[in-house]
Amino acid sequence: MDLQQEAKQSLIELEEALLDFEQEPHNTALTGEALEKLNQFRLFAQIMELDSVLLAVNLLTTLLQAVQAKEMNLSENRLGLFFEAVELIRQVAGFHQSAPLESRSTLPPTAQAKTNSAIPASPPSKSKIEGNGTKTSETQGSIKVEVKKLEQIDATLQEVVIRYSILAQSNENEKVTELGKMLEQLKEQIHALQSISVKPLLMKMKHLVTSTAMKTGKQIEYVMQGADCLLDKKLVEELSEPLLHLLRNACDHGIETTQERTAQGKPPLAKVSLSFEATQDEALITITDDGKGLSTRRILKKALEKGVAQADQSYSNQEIWQFIFQSGFSTAQTLSDISGRGVGMDVVKQKIHRLGGEIHLESQEGIGTRVLLKIPLKSSLNGIFKGIITQVGPYRCAIPLQYVKEVLDGSKLRLDAKDKQILHQGKALAVYPLAELFHSEGAKKQKALVLEADAQAKCVITVDRVLGEQDIVSRGFGSYIRQLSARSLIYGMGYCGDELSLVLDVENLLQSEVAA
Questions:
Q1: What is the Cα 307 distance to its own chain's centre?
Q2: Taking a C-beta distance cutoff of 8 angstroms, is the pair 445, 367 a contact?
Q3: In the chain, what is the greatest distance between 2 CA atoms, to the nearest angstrom?
Q4: In sequence order, what E strands does 393-476 have?
Q5: Strand 457-463 to strand 427-433: parallel, antiparallel, or no bridges (unpaired)?
Q6: pLDDT band, residue 35 (cuts 50/70/90)
Q7: Rg of the chain (C-alpha set)
Q8: Contacts for 217-221: CB closer than 8 Å, 24+ residues apart
Q9: Comparing 95-104, 352-361, 430-439, which segment has the lowest mean pLDDT?
């Protein structure tokens, strides 16, 4: 690990020590640990001749020494300033990795989560994930491996999957089946190597909540759970922006002012919590607040005004809550620089769905709101996903299995007069022949696939044939090429054994005018 990587790691571990100190304010050993990390970073600042950074490090060192000597108490507000100072140091040192979800936010995001993972020296099969997401190991030894090397291993795995698919297509015997099982074990072990703690991400959100509370003048307690949970590094990075937006919304719009809470008989101190849990198959992330809750009346009124709801139709609470995920939808009476501008809940939803996940809302007006994110651990983050292979004229098209809810007999579909909709399970669904996307003539439309992202996003596509289910290694086209390709409904190419398939971008399809 080079000097810059060590400096980044020192800042992350400094934040961890500060967070631990908040939980144990009388543990002076933690301030000693924080001072040690500052000293490690000071060496980097001296070598790189970063005078302004060095000045800030020296100031923090003086303050921490005063805390250690019990000459100064580290209150929550002061601790928040410490986190702000560390973030500024990170930016000035050039460690800032990515822009926040909302570019107008006054709060800079913490740099990318750990860039180097602690990897068990023993085979990964000797480690296990507990029900609460805590990883325990039978051995104590560990080494540090650069992320780039792990990505190279992952790329090799993708090539192995492609070659195995070719072999499986041409051979049906016990040895091939056994090889397939070994390949699945190898994939799980490599994914385990790429797992990191979510603690830095939880810490980042602590910083956000504290900063937002100070900006809005509200009293908000941040509660976190599952700090020992281990998730895929890429997944942790992808979750950062959606969580920033959800927590910012909870603090700015969900939590009432102190005066409003007192008038309603609520305690002045509001609570916002974030918890992580990893089961065998999925990550569960929960954001809760004890604020004002979602007003179904106001949401439905806005939905009617925007034309996304029909006045002559009745809606359940769950259906009404789904309207907030519509593009540009907001019930906020005033917009602020904290939230309510730029990217909305629709992009949060798209981000979670692209991870193969789901968003579930529960709310009670005047009591609070709970948002549950369910993300499959075996997602397509590594470029490998389960898909349905279809034939459309001379083309093969792969559809991610997570979106396919049902396969129907296309010849028995009852279409409307314009062949644009069918009535399925009591609801009118848009029908889109993939032949139109590929400009293919003479499509037989023998099969129809019901695609669904959630209760509010469904459509039906028709194809010539369904060829089967398979592991697919995907390669995205990139944003520029995708703008030129079939109304951006094609994500990229998929390697299915020795065959190539186009990968359908289901999220864009469901959001497009075709599925409206």
A1: 30
A2: no
A3: 83
A4: 395-400, 404-409, 421-424, 427-433, 447-454, 457-463, 465-476
A5: parallel
A6: confident
A7: 26
A8: 217/257, 217/258, 218/251, 218/255, 218/256, 218/257, 218/258, 218/270, 219/258, 219/268, 219/269, 219/270, 220/251, 220/255, 220/269, 220/270, 220/271, 220/272, 221/269, 221/270, 221/271, 221/272
A9: 95-104
Query: Mean of the per-residue pLDDT values for the chain?
Result: 75
CB 278 within 8 A of CB 231: yes
Separation CA 261–CA 255 (nearest Å): 9
Question: Is-contact 492 477, C-beta < 8 A?
Answer: yes
Q: How many CB atoms lie within 10 A of CB 244?
A: 23
* pLDDT tens digits along 391-421: 888 888 899 888 888 888 877 777 665 667 7
d(CA 2, CA 4): 6
- Residue-wise pLDDT for 492-515, tens only, equals 788 776 678 888 888 778 776 444
Q: How many CB atoms lie within 10 A of CB 302?
A: 19
Residue 486 pLDDT greater than 50, yes or no: no
Q: Is 474:491 a contact under the CB 8 Å cutoff?
A: yes
Which residue is listed with tokens 């994500």?
491
Q: Which helix (H) or strand (E) holds 274?
A: strand 270-278
Task: Output the pTM of the full model.
Answer: 0.60
pLDDT for the residue 271: 95
Of 382, 386, 389, 380, the closest CA to residue 502 belongs to 389
C-alpha closest to that of 343 among 334, 335, 355: 335
| DSSP single-letter state for residue 324 | G
DSSP string, 67-126: HHTTSS---HHHHHHHHHHHHHHHHHTT------SSTT-SSPPPPPS-SEEEEESS-GGG
Six-digit token string for 69: 């000597």
Strands 220-225 and 282-289, bridge-based pairing: unpaired
**Is residue 75 over pLDDT 80?**
no
Neighbours of 237 (CB within 10 A): 18
In SS3 terms, 48-65 reads as CCCHHHHHHHHHHHHHHH
